[in-house]
Amino acid sequence: MHTEVNELKDFLIDKVQGGRFVLGIDGLSRSGKTTFTEELEKRLERENIPFRTFHIDDHIVTRENRYDTGQEEWYEYYSLQWDIEGLRRKLFDKLKYASEVALPFYDKVSDTHQFHTISLPENSLLIIEGIFLQRKEWKHFFDYIVYLDCPREKRFLREKEEIRANISKFINRYWKAEEYYLDSEQPIKNADMVVES
């Protein structure tokens, strides 16, 4: 993975000189997106490349809006876990021109949101890290997308043992949503860079 991160960093150096460059770090759950992003951030800092990172999971909706909604579990995860249109308006639509964005950050303990304002440097790399980034509502906002490809079995073993014990949740909620994403959006085929993780 270190080689791929270095290659990506070298590719990105020139991209931020003339404005903003929007990079997506896509991949299914536990594929290594956060680790990859953190490694990239370290290299960007060494090169003094300005950047901002947004983690899609910081912006999920409250529990009542994503559980027991009457929809199938996989649909809740894929289509209701995030305010897809809200994030498009509040974040994606503004990435290229706004000086700042105000976003709802989810607090797991209180199951509430707090809005925070994030400044966007004029010439910078904007990194969006998260699952399902190449969904039809968002994918056209990216200038470049990296997809981290990792087998389901390996990703599953990265979960904590007590979480793995609830296998029905994986079967009915997570894996069906992942299969829908892979079939409908073909993220591996459409990514600009695929990293085996």
From TrEMBL:
SUPFAM superfamilies: P-loop containing nucleoside triphosphate hydrolases. The keyword Transferase applies. Keywords: Kinase, Transferase. One of its GO terms (molecular function) is kinase activity. It comes from the Bacteria. Residues 22-154 form the Phosphoribulokinase/uridine kinase domain. Pfam families: PRK. This is Uridine kinase. It comes from Thalassobacillus devorans.
